[in-house]
Design a protein that fits this description.
Helix content is 30%, strand content 23%. The protein is an alpha/beta fold. It folds into two domains: 7-246 and 314-359, Glycosidases (TIM Barrel, Alpha-Beta Barrel), CATH 3.20.20; 252-308, no CATH class. The protein has an eight-stranded parallel barrel, surrounded by five helices. Strand 14 (298-303) and strand 15 (308-311) form a beta hairpin. The two termini are 29 Å apart.
């Protein structure tokens, strides 16, 4: 296992045909780049069609930036096949062999199984034994990768899923899994999604007392609460990498209420895109009312004509979350996803600034 290095990471979506070129990635701001995703198709691991060109470009990027570590991420939201792959010693061995083959040019593997036991799209296969099998799968990957290569995992924080309330500890043996991993990419976003009954924040920093979510869920359904929850379940802070979203979430609401749509019953979701889309299309338009919550430390927009609420992050809120991670001894910060930033790398610069600042302190 590799210990001690600060992680400033970003996911690069290899399945997105419209993503910006790899040679435009600001590698000087990053320590780790996660290539997403390899998936399980017909029982076998496969890379996206664009992968050959991407892998050549990644190799060139690494040559120019020898300190950058690249990691192959396997899975992602909606990816199936994990329950079958982890089910038996034979299936786990086959998965590990294929993972190591695909990851030959990478510095390690990121396991993004969303989600063992329950959660995610309802059509995915889930089994009660997934929880234990996820640990066994990670154990065999750890052995196969050896001590010099990375094994990481992206783990969830949001407390609402497709079938209702969700608890990460029911999907993962968190302490045992953390022992096997170099670090955890904690997905401290998606706290407010289409599964939420009201228009709410994607990544509130702390619990908001006026949030109408059940208090037993609300306590953990925020950045600070999620970090506390994982630590209570045996994941050391220095193995937690805080996730920040470079995308927004939109809701149609029944009425504006007294807080410009916030916490109003939602009647549908709206695709609002990434930060670069929001910055280009929404922020310059004066009809979108701008707001910032003093407790959640989150900005939002409200369109009174269409009754649309948009939760998003800007440089101020991203830097505040990264500063929280640096101040509380977390391993670093990462984003989903790199192509969501603008051409000036505004959000990535904000995400990395607190860690770069702490490195230069006397």
């Amino acid at each position: 296992m590799i210990v001690g290095q600060t992680v400033l990471g970003a996911y690069f979506p290899g399945t997105d045909e419209n993503t910006y070129p790899i040679d435009a990635i600001p590698a000087g701001l990053l320590t780790h780049l996660f290539y997403a995703f390899a998936t399980i198709e017909n029982g076998h691991l496969t890379l996206p069609p664009q992968a050959p060109a991407h892998l050549a470009a990644l190799a060139a990027l690494k040559r120019a930036n020898p300190g950058l570590r690249t990691v192959l991420s396997i899975g992602g939201w909606g990816a199936g096949g994990f329950s079958d792959a982890a089910l038996t010693p034979r299936s786990r061995a086959a998965f590990v062999d294929e993972s190591l083959e695909l990851a030959a040019g990478f510095d390690g593997v990121d396991l993004d199984w969303e989600f063992p036991v329950s959660g995610g799209p309802t059509e995915l296969t889930h089994r009660p034994e997934d929880r234990r099998n996820a640990t066994l799968l990670a154990q065999e990957l750890r052995h196969g990768l050896g001590p010099a290569r990375l094994l990481t995992a992206a783990l969830p924080a949001g407390r609402l899923q497709s079938v209702g309330p969700y608890d990460p500890a029911e999907s993962y043996e968190l302490a045992a899994l953390a022992d096997l991993l170099d670090f955890v990419n904690l997905m401290t976003y998606d706290f407010g999604t289409g599964f939420s009954p009201t228009a709410t924040f994607n990544a509130p920093l702390v619990e908001v007392a006026h949030d109408p979510l059940d208090p037993d869920l609300r306590r953990w359904n925020n950045v600070t609460g999620a970090v506390d929850y994982y630590e209570r379940h045996g994941v050391p802070r220095d193995k937690l990498v805080l996730g920040v979203p470079f995308y927004g979430r939109g809701f149609r609401v029944a009425s504006a209420g007294d807080q410009a749509g916030l916490y109003q019953p939602q009647v549908g979701t709206v695709e609002v895109g990434d930060w670069r889309d929001i910055r280009r299309e929404l922020l310059p338009d004066p009809i979108w009312q701008r707001h910032r919550h003093p407790v959640a430390r989150s900005p939002w927009l409200y369109h009174p004509g269409t009754r649309t609420f948009v939760s998003y992050e800007d440089a101020e809120s991203i830097e505040e979350r990264a500063a929280f991670a640096a101040r509380h001894g977390l391993r670093g910060a990462f984003t989903w996803q790199l192509a969501g930033d603008d051409n000036e790398h505004t959000l990535l610069t904000a995400m990395t600034r607190p860690f770069r600042r702490s490195e230069h302190r006397p």
